């Protein structure tokens, strides 16, 4: 389904928007999926973000950070959506505990299962973080944004970015440490 978005009166060309916005599509979709934890909602969120950004492109100031501007639109759209407002933490009822790990050859079905289990545990620990912690952590670690970019994208001071990131990392360590001890997978510093 296509929507008509009126950009009359815009000094900037639609071609300029496309050149700036399209390279960010995959990054924005990944961030939306982390936020919503649902593929369909992430697709809707990204579509709505692009529609709002195109409509408001005339207000974008050249020379400022377009990437941060797009992330801010996506985040604000998420926070005003049904999903963002309820932002409840979900904890799986059934846990997948495999027991102790045995010494085995790399790239065997067992090691692949163990790696997958570690990824699932990390995903679960990240999902349990509050949205404000999760978004700062993901923007920094996954999207590799600088503190300044995160500050601009989320409209919060850099000090807040740093403290939220520190708390998010500490919470992840706290959640993952018992899991790593159970599996004997090594220390988390």
Keyphrases for this structure?
disordered N terminus; 2 domains; 189 residues; 64% helix; Rna Polymerase Sigma Factor, Chain: A; Arc Repressor Mutant, subunit A
Write the layout of secondary structure elements.
Elements (H helix, E strand, L loop, with lengths): L13 H8 L3 H12 L2 H17 L10 H14 L2 H5 L22 H20 L2 H11 L5 H8 L3 H26 L6
Helix pairs in contact: 2-3, 2-4, 3-4, 4-8, 6-9, 7-9, 8-9
Q: Could you give the order of the helices and strands?
A: HHHHHHHHH
What is the level-2 CATH architecture name of the largest domain?
Orthogonal Bundle
Q: What is the overall pLDDT average?
A: 77
> Whole-Å distance between the termini?
48 Å
The gross shape turns out to be: globular
Classify the beta-strand content into a percent band.
under 5%
CATH topology of the largest domain: Arc Repressor Mutant, subunit A
The tally of structural domains comes to 2
Class computed from helices, strands and strand pairing? mainly alpha
CATH class of the largest domain: Mainly Alpha
The poorly predicted ranges are: 1-12, 87-105
- CATH homologous superfamily descriptor of the largest domain: Winged helix-like DNA-binding domain superfamily/Winged helix DNA-binding domain
* Percentage of residues assigned to helices: 55-70%
How is the main sheet built?
none
| Cα gyration radius (Å) | 20 Å
Number of helices: 9
The strand count comes to 0
Q: For this entry, what is the oligomeric state of its chains?
A: single chain
Describe the structure.
With about 190 residues, the chain is an all-alpha fold. It folds into 2 domains: about 15-85, RNA polymerase sigma factor, region 2, helix turn helix motif (Rna Polymerase Sigma Factor, Chain: A); about 110-185, Arc Repressor Mutant, subunit A (Orthogonal Bundle). Helices cover about 65% and strands about 0% of the residues. The protein contains 9 helices and no strands. α2 crosses α3, α3 crosses α4 (about 65-80) and α7 (about 130-140) crosses α9 (about 160-185). The chain is globular. It starts with 13 loop residues before the first helix and ends in a 6-residue tail after the last helix. Mean pLDDT is about 75; it is low at about 1-10 and about 85-105.
């Amino acid at each position: 389904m296509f929507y008509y978005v009126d950009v009359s009166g815009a000094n900037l060309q639609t071609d300029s928007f496309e050149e700036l916005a399209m390279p960010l599509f995959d990054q924005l979709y990944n961030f939306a999926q982390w936020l919503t934890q649902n593929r369909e909602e992430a697709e809707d969120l990204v579509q709505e973000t692009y529609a709002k950004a195109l409509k408001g492109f005339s207000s974008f100031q050249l020379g400022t950070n377009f990437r941060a501007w797009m992330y801010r639109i996506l985040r604000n759209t998420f926070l005003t959506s049904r999903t963002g407002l309820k932002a409840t933490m979900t904890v799986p009822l059934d846990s997948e505990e495999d027991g102790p790990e045995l010494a085995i050859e790399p790239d065997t079905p067992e090691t692949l299962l163990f790696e997958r289990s570690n990824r699932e545990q990390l995903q679960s620990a990240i999902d349990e973080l509050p949205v404000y912690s999760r978004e700062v952590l993901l923007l920094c670690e996954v999207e590799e944004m600088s503190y300044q970019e995160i500050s601009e994208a989320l409209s919060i001071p850099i000090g807040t970015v740093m403290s939220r990131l520190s708390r998010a990392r500490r919470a992840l360590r706290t959640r993952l440490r018992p899991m790593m001890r159970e599996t004997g997978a090594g220390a988390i510093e």
